[in-house]
UniProtKB/TrEMBL annotation:
It is found in: Secreted. The keyword Coiled coil does not apply. The lineage of its organism: Eukaryota, Viridiplantae, Streptophyta, Embryophyta, Tracheophyta. Residues 1-27 form the signal peptide. It comes from Triticum aestivum (Wheat). This is GDSL esterase/lipase.
Length: 365
């Protein structure tokens, strides 16, 4: 019951924020919202593929109105929060099974275990890499051209939409820092690996741009070294974050800032921005109580040390006070944390939260 109450309280927060973002009866701030990413924002695209990276079973979705949907959280993801703040009546649907009408207002292409590199996450089975997600988007654009009548109409429509792209987490968790399955850790220094990821990422983001994407937010990689799984397996005391992991990931994030500046300088009409998830999480971890959180080093649902050695199992009983936890399982944030991050992506609380603009400003450009 406590869990349901916490969900209702968060829902009230979102309703208030949504009302502030759009006045009654006003349309959404942008005509469509397209999502690319991994398990942090997957909302069902992996449900129909043969993969260990699936979350369409209880207790995932325990606080979500629709129950388990494929979201790797107890409730809302960050993009669910963002879609509400942008004024959309409904959550952005997964591309898998989306209708033509839904393509007009945007779909979610994200896939759990996906990476920028093609091999990333392969030990978990099926997943849709970032290049595969871009191919699905290209297919969607071709359908939009048919729906809207011509390429110019489709280009005009897409130029007003918001795109969020959050890739890279798995390229570290399920590739670079997994030597039992991958040799990238021995073949690349952290700086070389960040360069490799950035080069591949740049190429695919240019494809998105060539297919109409103009207002694009690159979601940085969070503090992987502070996840319950890394605390359980790499931290001496299970409390201190694993700095060498976070340092490597920050090298990639730094390159994202440079990419944003380059795109905005070189690509006509482009409005790219960077959402500093690492910085937002650092701020939350400095004073979790001030953000309504009490437990930051354990998963609400999981097995072993820090509830992070094995992720949340089917029908496992999760913690009752989910709104006080930063992490839902071994890797993924709770709805409470996703609300905090989504709010700050939409309206920056600190200047360091975004570069150069937040999503509310991006929508107005």
């Amino acid at each position: 019951m406590a869990g349901r109450a916490s969900w209702r309280s968060l829902a009230v927060v979102l309703a208030v924020l949504g009302a502030a973002a759009t006045t009654a009866g006003e349309a959404a701030q942008v005509p469509c919202y397209f999502v690319f990413g991994d398990s942090l924002v997957d909302n069902g695209n992996n449900n129909g593929i043969v993969s260990l990276a699936r979350a369409n079973y209880p207790p995932y979705g325990v606080d979500f109105a629709g129950g388990p949907t494929g979201r790797f959280s107890n409730g809302l993801t960050t993009v669910d929060v963002i879609s509400k703040l942008l004024g959309f009546d409904d959550f952005i649907p997964p591309f898998a099974g989306a209708t033509s009408d839904q393509l007009l207002t945007g779909v979610n292409f994200a896939s759990a275990a996906a990476g920028i590199r093609e091999e990333t996450g392969q030990q978990l089975g099926g997943r849709i890499s970032f290049s595969g997600q871009v191919q699905n988007y290209q297919s969607a654009v071709e359908q939009l051209v048919s729906i809207l009548g011509d390429e110019d109409a489709a280009a005009n429509h897409l130029s007003q939409c918001i795109f969020t792209v959050g890739m890279g987490s798995n390229d570290y968790l399920n590739n670079y820092f997994m030597p039992a399955f991958y040799d990238t850790g021995s073949r690349y220094t952290p700086a070389q690996y960040a360069d490799d990821l950035a080069a591949r990422y740049t190429q695919l983001l240019r494809v998105l741009y060539s297919y109409g994407a103009r207002k694009v937010a690159l979601i940085g990689v969070g503090q992987v070294g502070c996840s319950p799984n890394e605390l359980a397996t790499q931290s001496a005391n299970g409390v201190a974050c694993v700095d060498w992991i976070n340092v490597a990931v920050r090298m990639f994030n730094q390159r994202l800032v440079g990419m944003v500046d380059q795109f905005n300088r070189l690509l006509p009409g482009a409005h790219f921005t960077y959402i500093n998830i690492d910085g937002i999480f650092s701020d939350i971890l400095r004073a979790p109580g001030g953000h309504g959180l009490k437990v930051t080093n354990r998963g609400c649902c999981g097995v072993g040390r820090n509830n992070g050695q094995v992720t949340c199992l089917p029908f496992q009983t999760p913690c009752p006070n989910r709104n006080e936890y930063l992490f839902w399982d071994a890797f993924h944030p709770t709805e409470a944390a996703n609300v905090l991050v989504g709010q700050r992506a939409y309206v920056a609380r600190l200047a360091s939260d975004v570069h150069p603009v937040d999503l509310r400003t991006l929508a107005r450009l």
